[in-house]
# Entry
Amino acid sequence: MAKVLTGEVISLSMQGTVVVEVVWKSPHPMYRKLLQKSKKYKVALNGKQVKIGDKVKMSETKKFSSDKYFAISEVLSIGKGEK
# Structure
């Protein structure tokens, strides 16, 4: 079963690739306070048109390169655009 993650587009500087930041909350192991954690993924566009700030759903696919193994499956909401 392929992973499906939701995140926000933060960079469009590469051709055919965007950088998506996924944010989640996780409790501290001892104190149980919720901490916000994040990770950045390089994601293939697959012909989709996105802007910075868009929320996207991405799914795991075959490797496109050494560190790009996700592709955008759908655009969930439109962000405010580039600044």
User: Anything to note?
Assistant: The chain is about 0% helix and 60% strand. The longest strand covers residues 4-14. Strands lie at 4-14, 17-27, 34-44, 55-60, 68-77.
